[in-house]
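REQUEST FORM: STRUCTURE PREDICTION
Request ID: SP-0412
Submitted by: Lab K.M.
Chain count: 1
Length (residues): 110
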Amino acid sequence: MPKFIAKQYFKFGFILVFTALIVNACSAPEGNMDDGKRWYMMHNCQACHGNQGDDGKGPVIYPLNMGYRHFKSIVRNANSPIMPKFPEEKISNQDVADIYTWLKMKSSTP
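STATUS: Completed
RESULT:
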């Protein structure tokens, strides 16, 4: 196999693997809607956002109009004097994904 063709295959393979890694990193983990409702209550989100996320003293988060990465960033790094930050030690990535799924699925149901 000539060097030129080998280099092209290598470049193509590298780009393919890199693209797959980026797509995987950007997608939301699979969440469970039922668990999301439970975690929402257990982590006391309703204290500020209301039982359904649409009332309370905090911002309205239902209907949810943001992507998973933005939602997770807000949960982890809340830049607010009122909302606490929730590091992974307090709320797991799976719990965040479950809550996100619950809010998102609620938002997409008529």
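NOTES: The mean pLDDT is 85.
Reviewed by: T.R.
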